[in-house]
Fold:
Amino acid sequence: MDLNLNAEELAFRDELRVWLEANVPKDWSQWREKPLDESFPYLRAWQRRLYEGGWAAVSWPKEYGGRSATLMQQAIFWGEMARVEAPPMANALGLGLIGPTIIAHGSDAQKKRFIPKILSAEEIWCQGFSEPNAGSDLAALQTEARLDGGHYVVNGQKVWTSYGWVGDWCELVVRTDPTVPKHKGLTVLLVDMKSPGVEVRPLRQMTGESEFNELFFRDVRVPMENVLGKVNDGWNVAMSTLMHERGAYGARLILTFKRNINRLIELARLVPRNGRPAAQDPVLRQKLAQCFAEVEIMRLNQLRAFSRITVTGAPGPEGSIQKLFWSELNQRLQQLAQELLGPYGQLLAGDTYAVDNGIWSYGYLRSRGNTIEAGTSEVQRNIIGHFVLGLPRSY
Amino acid sequence: MEFGLNESQGILQESAREFFAGECPISEVRRMSATDTAFDPNLWGKLAKQGYTGITFAEEFGGVGLGIVELILLMEEAGRALLPGPFFSTVALAGSLLSFIASTEQKRRYLAPICRGEARATAAVVEASGSWDPAETQMTVVDGKVKGEKLFVSDAGVADWIIVLARTGVYLVDARAGGVRIAPMNGMDVTRKLYSVRFDSAAAEKLGDTFGIPNALDVATAALCAEMVGGMQRTLELTVEYAKTRKQFGKPIGMFQAVQHHCADMYLETESARSAVYYAAWALEQNAPDAASAVSIAKLYTSEASRTVGNRGIQVHGGMGFTWENDLHLYYRRAKASETAFGDATFHRERLARLVIDVEAASARKS
Structure:
């Protein structure tokens, strides 16, 4: 056990610090609260800059434009990005989930074709997984692909697609063999979103915004060379994407959580409660301290998981603990913000009296999605029960 | 940066697990716990022979000279086995106070016999107020004589020395000296006996001033948390095993999601507590600026998690979990005693609030 940075990690951090100092945009705070469609070109330009500096995907192998960074270096990377309050990257799913899946399962031609443009944000990626009748039971999905000459012809519908509105390409899971058990007849296709027959509709969520889309596919033709991995092995390919989503991807959230709890502590010093600052209210102090502790434990769990993955080689089911922990913690954190702000907590962005331009009312509503997206808390508990503890499958 | 165990730490963990499995099976735990003191001199001798009673003390005092992380790993295994008797009181509590506060000459005099397994000790912290905050201590020592009463003193019945926290400093009292009256307090935990200790002008040797108390108590608190994590781990193992074998409606109950989800939460809570405790140990060893807050984070989380893990474990065991025959309640009882010892979750949330919410700490947090 040694939580000090070793020489290599220190060198990595110092090189990154120097680069960030010279390159991180100074005007991000003016863009942060704007809708994503307005700020998207800005985020694209920022990712392009990281790409040119060699920082867009530090975890990827060197031959694909990454730095072959260890998990600890990745943790350092996200820590430094947070410290300077750097903007996020435009192609979040391409870099975090889909790129690594292509690197793991793709052909040489696919890697050559897709990887550089994921890195440079020239091509934005989205993920076509969930369907109206296939959420937690993802393997029950019905979008079908029939072989016709050298092409698959795709028909069906996907929901909860982030970045669908701006996506150039989609990692799409389809059913290629309806005659075999559900997990065994799936295939992953890489689909050009400009193909005829693809329709993207906004999906308005309870926050009022349309972060997600519905995708409709009507006789969309996808060339066979765009099969990712093997035909009918799509479940394994899709799982490797989900492991990234539940595992290492969570590391990026720690920064947001740290910033949020620190901001709540700041607000507690300013907000009056019973004639004194809320920070001196014994009940709120207890809740703030509890939340502060849990955010720290989230960080420590992640570091321990990283150390374990370094030994075992790949993100495993223990990523489900992280997903379960952060999603439920964020709901508690957002509820605490509401208790702290009292009637001001409900005010939306744009209201004259809104605190922090309404991020807390938004965060409160948005956090309800946390325990649903990327596998519900119930599914995560099933995974821990079965895959980690070895209890018999319940379904 | 590496947040796992290195090779020698892994070996220590494994050999401790084997040692306790062989020397302290649950049948022995029950036998010892049924005695007045839960102390077995034979087992104590074996602990000393292993080097466990001197694990963190410097070699010049007869110890093994290992670090706080190693102490935490050993305490975790002791907790998993539910080791009864004065090991925590002697090594983690009294030992830490002696290490941080006593003079070199005193360390030689008191730590060396502890390392050899010839002496046992404990510390008297709490008074009538029930508070674990050393700042609330009322007891004073005048002209080398101590007067007054301390409560919830663990293992005083088998201690040779009692370290006494007073307003005027930290003192050592011979437990068999005149003017010392030790009486059992009937606590819930059958494995670690509690006592009231009344001092009527008993002779007290000064070890040092109060300056070193918080640091020494932080090490003891982290060690207790590690013991609690070991108990949580064993409760989880017993519960998962039961859920796999107990059948209802023709199926193992572990197949039902309502049961599985209890187990999943137990796992999450146990692992999270372990992360917090390991980090606290490392921070203490490194004298990190956030060591005190790391200890409070570990204690506030572990205090509540060890209780909820016990709650869930008993629930999954159904009627069996409610019997005296089943071992779960032995862990459950100790979890409750440990929850309040050295401050419960409410106590440590307030301490953490002072460290991270009240103004001074704001700059330390940025690093």
